[in-house]
Amino acid sequence: MSMTRRIPWMKYASASSFYPLANRLVPIFMGLAIVLAVIGLYVGFFVAPIDYQQGNSYRIMFLHVPAAWMSMFIYLLLAVYAIISLVWRVKMADIMAYSLAPTGAMFTFLALLTGALWGRPTWGTYWIWDARLTSELLLLFLYLGYMGLYSAIPDRQRASRAASFLAIVGVVNVPIIYFSVVWWNTLHQGSSFSVSDGASMTSDMLSALLLMTFACWAYAIAVVLRRAQAVILERKKVALWASQISRKKES
Amino acid sequence: MGIGEFFHMGGHGFYIWGSYGTALFLMIVEATWVAKRRNKAKKELERMEAEFARVDNQGMNR
Amino acid sequence: MHRMLWKLFNRDMALFMQRKQDIVTVLGFFLVAVALFPLGISSDPELLREIAPGAIWIAALFSTVLALDRLFSEDMDDGTLEQQLLMPLPISLVLLVRLIAHWVVTSLPIIVLTPVMGVQFGLNLDEIVILTFSLLLGTPVLVLLGAIGAALTVGLKSSGGLVTLLLLPLYVPVLILGTSSVSSVMAGMEVTAHFSLMGAALIVSLVLSPFAVATALKITID
């Protein structure tokens, strides 16, 4: 108990104080996401000039790059929460890790899809086994593995700890996967294209990119907090049910 | 620049609007799902608490 | 302590050898999978030579995943593993011994058969030697990493698909290193870089994986 008084942030590690805080934050971040996205899209589509090499298709980058960044940041964040949950047994950290996964997987899928849709007019093909696309695909598998393991183990405590452990093993492997795929790509020169995105980026393009990135962040925060709230309530329900049954047995 | 020209995007309309359309769709779906999940859990929890409180009161009255 | 470990090793070997049909299944799976590549793709000798390292490596990879199913599962029933974990030895050491025994029983037969497969795909002697050696260095890494996935899914019903999903991203670097070593020798290039990287991977996984498996097992069966 003295811990909670000494470190104020520990207060927010408990579900009961997280819930009302999230209630206030979700609408703010959702609103922020919409406003930022509208401004970002305006700058991206009406202010930023057409690219003389790629034509208009480069405008997909304003979505693709933030989605790819998000997919990686969210996995990193998930792993950090997984460590906190596994080492210090903070329940809220596990709820956050669990809530981050579907949104991270969504952004990973989006990065893959927009990459393919950008690749078609730019490279002439939807998919190449390029280092970045391939490691993004493997990242999607990491997300699916985390969610799959979490839902496959019936005991929740055990599921949370096993999935957290898997997330940590995964995050250690991310750089190894990335470098091995890059290396593999240089061996097979045939399928590698040299892409010079960002070579001639104007300040308008950069601001559109940043605005869209912040919009994605705000969206992710809002959705993840909302999901965490749902999980808190669902677990509370299970606990209430269990306590009621044990009370009935006693009487 | 006309509306049609804007949506045509110099021949890249399908790729651009396909990307942004899917993103918008997925985000709306995810946000709706999450909100529904929260509301459903909230309602069920409240109902359960009310039910258990009722059962407890009956037990005491008896 | 040496004698104790040796006894442990023999105990594990006996345990695995009891279920001969499982070993036959794994080996049969490997042979069938390799044989399906020419049937499914082409019998063109040039093309076969090109896909040979990938085909044999992928078949070995999936055979490893298939075999992982029985790494811890039987012990869940008769409690041998729990007993072994209570021995006055470090848990990671007990697990390492078990993994080595598992590798000897399930991967070594595959490696022994690999030269035959190589001949079928029209590889020459140099390439067969490199391929066999790459499997000799690579399959222990697959087993060591795979044990983490097997430990995390211990006791789950129909966990085969899940294990594959969990392990696929971890296996990619090993697969890339293994197949590209053979491709390099085909292209007349040096393979020392490949083999030093694979050796490094083997040492790192030999050191770290038993601890990871022990942690995972503590989570799933305590």
Salient structural properties:
heterotrimer, B: mainly alpha, rod-shaped, C: 222 residues, mainly alpha, 84% helix
Question: Would you mind describing this structure in some detail?
Answer:
- The complex is a heterotrimer of chains A (251), B (62) and C (222).
- Helices cover 80% and strands 0% of the residues of chain A.
- Chain A has seven helices and no strands.
- The longest helix of chain A is centred in the C-terminal third of the chain and has 48 residues.
- Chain A is globular, with a radius of gyration of 21 Å.
- Chain B has two helices and no strands.
- The mean pLDDT of chain B is 86.
- Chain C has 222 residues and is mainly alpha-helical.
- In chain C, 84% of the residues lie in helices and 0% in strands.
- Chain C has ten helices and no strands.
- In chain C, α3 runs antiparallel to α9 and α8 packs parallel to α10.
- Chain C is globular and about 55 Å long.
- The mean pLDDT of chain C is 89.
- At the A-B interface, α2, α3, α4 and α7 of A face α2 of B.
Output the structural class of chain B.
mainly alpha
Q: Count the helices of chain B. How many?
A: 2
Q: Give unreliable regions of chain B as ranges.
A: none
Mean pLDDT of chain B: 86
Biggest beta sheet attributes of chain C:
none
Distance N terminus to C terminus of chain C? 26 Å
What multimeric state do the chains show?
Answer: heterotrimer
Judged by helices, strands and strand pairing, the structural class of chain C is mainly alpha
- Give the % helix of chain B: over 70%
* Cα-based radius of gyration of chain B, to the nearest Å: 25 Å
Molecular shape of chain B:
rod-shaped
Main interface by residue count: A-B, 38 and 29 residues
From the N-terminal CA to the C-terminal CA of chain B, the straight-line distance is: 79 Å
β-sheet strand percentage of chain C:
under 5%
Count of helical stretches of chain C = 10
